[in-house]
Structures are given as C-alpha cells and as structure tokens.
Specification:
Strands 3-2-1-4-5-6-7 form a 7-stranded parallel sheet, sandwiched between helices. It contains 7 helices and 7 strands. With 197 residues, the chain is of the alpha/beta class. 25% of the residues are buried.
C-alpha cells in the first residue's frame, strides 16, 4: 500500500528494529528497547513495531514488552543473513532500522532483491569503529554500494552525525535521536531577582 494511502486510512507504519547480535543487554540494546517501547506506548496507533533479536542477551528484561519480539538466534554468519532475509521478507515493513554500520551492511546485503527502506542508527563514533580489516571492508561496502540505498541516518549525538558525514560525505537525511537511556542535564531557568516597590 502506498505511503499516502496509509496516511489516509490511518494504517500504522510497520517498523522493524534490529537488536545487535551481542551477549549483554547494555548500551545500544537498551537504547533500542527504550525507543521501541516509547513508540508503542505513546504512538501505538501510528506505529506497528517489531524488534528482531539475533542473539541471547544474558540480562535481557524478562517482563513483557508492548512491541512484538522476534527471536531468531543465529549460530553462524550465514544463518544470521538467512534470518535477516526471512524476517524482513515476511512482512511489508515501511522501515528497517539497524544499529551500527557493520550490521547494517550485513543486513542490507542479506536482503538484496527485497524492496525495503533501511536506516542506520549510529551508537559509537564511526572513526573509532573502523579499526580492523573486517570493519574496513564493511565500511567500504557501505560507502560504495549501500549508502545510496539508506533512507536516513539516526545518531545519538550531533558530533557522531558529523563524524559519519565527514567519513561518508552522505547526502541522506541525518536525525539526532537523543540517547533515551542517558540523562541529560538541562539548564535551570534563570531566576529573576525580586523587585521592591
């Protein structure tokens, strides 16, 4: 269904967020969980959110979530790519959001031939992540093959988005999505000295 028709019929947009294949439920894992919980709790009629887990997180919260959890644990890179392809092809997702550059490239490579919109969600500094040969190859693939197919780039800080733009010279839309797990110190409003009459 075209996007304009979805808006007119008020059909929720289908979002798939991919959890990274890590062992601990820590930084980016908590960010993904918090964002997806917030979307479903506050905008449940506008977004239909699925989260794909590709590994077992030792300390993953046991209480239920309002978003749909898809568990597809992979024991090899080939199985991971097969899982990506099967899950993404199973539903007409409007947007697939993948944390970090390397998993985004692997996910997009898995889905060649399937028409979907992808967004990369940065968490760390891209310059620091491109430190080993595998990362260099995947970053090169992002730059040469997949970046033109990315619909948007999310970042947890403006500096991070600048770093990505400097590395990739990206013309894709960039959006700062403040880290919902981190507490930001907000400036206190200025207080006026009492006036005497």
């Amino acid at each position: 269904m075209p996007y304009s028709e979805r808006l007119s019929t008020h059909t929720p947009l289908k979002i798939l967020y991919v959890q990274p294949g890590t062992n601990a439920f820590a930084g980016i894992e908590r960010v993904v969980d918090t964002i997806c919980s917030g979307l479903t709790d506050q905008y449940g009629s506008d977004f239909d959110v699925d989260v794909l887990y590709t590994s077992v997180h030792k300390n993953r919260p046991s209480e239920g979530r309002n978003y749909t959890i898809i568990d597809r644990v992979a024991s090899s890179r080939i199985e991971l790519m097969r899982n990506f392809r099967n899950v993404i092809a199973s539903k007409d997702y409007d947007l697939i959001v993948v944390p970090q550059i390397e998993p985004t490239v692997i996910c997009m490579a898995s889905c060649i031939g399937i028409r979907r919109r992808f967004a990369v969600h940065l968490h760390g500094n891209p310059k620091l992540e491109c430190s080993h040969i595998k990362a260099k190859i995947l970053f090169l693939l992002m730059r040469t093959l997949f970046l033109p197919k990315i619909s948007s780039v999310f970042g947890t800080s403006p500096r991070q988005l600048k770093s990505f733009n400097a590395m990739f010279k990206s013309k894709r839309p960039h959006y700062w999505v403040p880290n919902p797990v981190r507490k930001f110190d907000l400036p206190r409003p200025a207080t006026r000295a009492p006036t005497t009459t």
